[in-house]
Amino acid sequence: MAASWTREQNKRFEEALALYDENTPDRWQRVARAVGDGKSVEEVRRHYEVLVRDLVRIESGQIPLPNYRGSDQSDESSRLLRNMRLH
Q1: Disulfide-capable partner of 16 in 27, 31, 38, 74 (CB 3.0 to 4.6 Å)?
Q2: 6: which residues sit within 8 A by CB, 6+ positions away?
Q3: Which domains, ranges and CATH numbers included, belong to the chain?
Q4: CA neighbours within 13 Å on the CB side: how many for 29?
Q5: Does the pLDDT value for residue 76 go beyond 70?
Q6: What's this model's pTM, rounded to 2 decimal places?
């Protein structure tokens, strides 16, 4: 079972992904450090893989783009999903 992530951890995760792109040396170590709270490199990678799977499903129309307006989530997650592109 996957460990849960708080909103704050997700926010730090998203900010770290924006800061450390795929060409950054030791990217996952840096992202894990930025997330903090004891998240391991493996947990961060798995969390990213889930995000990518969700993005693929959204882009293929299998699930709608999340609408966080009016919820406690920031629009940052929605922006990340819109701006993230698979290569």
Answers
A1: 31
A2: 37
A3: 7-83 (1.10.10.60)
A4: 3
A5: no
A6: 0.69
